[in-house]
Design a protein that fits this description.
Elements lengths: L1 H31 L4 H26 L3 H26 L2 E2 L2 H25 L1 E2 L1 H38 L11 H33 L3 H13 L1 H12 L3 H26 L2 E2 L4 H18 L7 E2 L1 H20 L1
Antiparallel strand pairs: 1-4, 2-3
Helix pairs in contact: 1-2, 1-6, 2-3, 2-5, 2-6, 2-9, 3-7, 3-8, 3-9, 3-10, 3-11, 4-5, 4-9, 4-10, 5-9, 6-7, 8-9
Pfam families: Na_Ca_ex
GO biological process, one term: intracellular calcium ion homeostasis
Protein name: Calcium/sodium antiporter
Length: 323
């Protein structure tokens, strides 16, 4: 079992490294073709940090481990909200923008409702329902891109004025070949890492008599959300709290729609109604962020709020293991 644990650690390392390379390459491509940073951040980075969950869930579903696929998604969403965002707020109070409150949080709650509705209608997420989830995700990305491009156009106009005054210079354009190379290498690392994590986590669960559901919402979920953890904590340390919030909410939406819709295209995913509670908790804690806007300083998640979220996450894990 010790060897399996070591292999899982190696797998997580490949997942984090692969995600970083793929995100870096994707962001270079975005910059190369003139995509505004806001669009790249809310779409490319959010999708990129969710790629470990996506690859693990696809691998789990294809291998017939549906519990691990669902557990990975709901476990990662709750880890993003309670642990990662909580730790970010403990490091520095997190600002909650109007865009997050009015758009990203409602979309996240709606995604929870849509996934729960589809999964409970026939006890599984079918290929058709997987397509519906992916269409909803594409609509989210399109809307985000629309808002970001509008903002980017305004920033470009302002930058153009600055350049006319001699205050801006042309920046070198990233190499497309290098960007594509990073994407390919990152994708290969993600695939290998996901295989190592899923295979060895399954062996440990069988040997220890632990359900795949528990392994999915704890070990696998925590491992696959490492990119979000690193991104959000570093952002908080640098004082970029808006990036931390956007990364978490964007990744959760990607998890609920993309990460569950993708695996369903390969095989229908059986659903355990025990996950209804987990999905409800994701929605409730997302809405709690709105409440933080009106407690203490407006539009801010305080350090105290962060501590509460981290404690709630510890309680959730303890309860999940015992039930």
């Amino acid at each position: 079992m010790l060897l399996n644990l070591l292999i899982i650690v190696v797998g997580f390392g490949l997942l984090v490294g692969g995600a970083n390379l793929l995100v870096d390459g994707a962001c270079r491509l975005a910059a190369r073709f003139g995509m505004p940073e806001r669009v790249a951040g809310l779409t490319v980075v959010a999708i990129g940090t969710s790629l470990p969950e996506l690859v693990v869930s696809v691998t789990s579903a294809v291998a017939g481990h549906a519990d691990m696929a669902f557990g990975n998604v709901v476990g990662s969403c709750l880890a993003n909200l309670l642990l990662i965002l909580g730790l970010s707020a403990v490091i520095a109070p997190v600002a909650l923008s109007r865009g997050t409150i009015r758009f990203e949080i409602p979309v996240s709650v709606a995604a929870c409702g849509l996934l729960a509705l589809l999964a409970n209608t026939d006890g599984e997420v079918t290929q058709v329902e997987g397509v519906l989830l992916l269409v909803a995700f594409v609509a989210f990305v399109a809307r985000t891109a629309q808002m970001g491009l509008k903002e980017g156009a305004d920033e470009k106009g302002a930058a153009g004025d600055g350049a006319a005054d001699g205050t801006a210079a042309d920046a070198p354009r990233p190499s497309v070949a290098m960007a594509l190379w990073l994407v390919v290498v990152g994708a290969v690392m993600l695939k290998v890492g996901a295989d190592l994590v899923v295979d060895n986590a399954t062996l440990i669960a069988e040997a220890a008599g632990i359900s795949e559901r528990v392994i999915g919402i704890t070990v696998v979920a925590l491992g696959t959300c490492l990119p979000e953890l690193v991104t959000s904590v570093v952002a908080a340390l640098r004082g970029n709290s808006d990036i931390a919030v956007g990364n978490v909410m964007g990744s959760n939406i990607a998890n609920l729609l993309l990460v569950m819709g993708g695996p369903a295209l390969f095989s229908a995913i059986p659903y355990d109604t025990a996950y209804n509670l987990d999905l409800a908790l994701v929605a409730v804690f997302s809405l709690a962020l709105v409440g933080f806007c009106y407690v203490g300083r407006r539009h801010e998640m305080s350090r105290v709020n962060g501590v509460i979220f981290v404690v709630l996450y510890a309680a959730y894990i303890a309860t999940s293991v015992m039930r």
